[in-house]
Fold this protein.
Amino acid sequence: ASRAVLKVALTEKGREYLIHHKTVAEIKTLFDDSEVQIRNNAYVSLINLADFRFGVDSVIDAGILPILIDKLVLEKEESILILILSLLKVLAEGEKAPSILLGTPALARLNSHLASKNANIRELAALNIGSISFNVHGKERTIEAHSIEPLTRMLFDKVSEVRTAATRALASLAQLKAGKVEIYDLEMLDRIIELLYDCLLYTSPSPR
């Protein structure tokens, strides 16, 4: 059944069908399945479903966000945890997401994954923190959650994508005085500026 749902979620018409028939509520029950592949199919289906704005809203309205935050602790399979963080990142862009996420222990749980041995998990945790701290209230709560110090440790990560994700999250937090002061006290402002400059060089189109 999970394989069939996955196939349906691959097309736009299929996504519309899943939303119209309120299938998201059924898909989320598969998060607790003992089979890794079934859990995989469930998360991938929702990632595909959230590929469109109407899909993001439908998944959020089904109460998925608090469940994902709990799964950040409960899920032990790394490949599934990566899918959870990937889905969370897509949903965090939704208009309703910030207020819901700030009502959960999202930041504390994401902080714990910043030190993961898995580079994909470290990067996605930092990206999610960056998304949550997009607006002023999110920035304030992220600073209160003590996310800055573990993010600054990632500025020296051996994986460039991890460094970039941490740099962008910290650059966002530095827009608030409290964030800038904490980063300055940790003597990391110069490192952030250096990495931001490297990011700009890397992403700038090469001259023809």
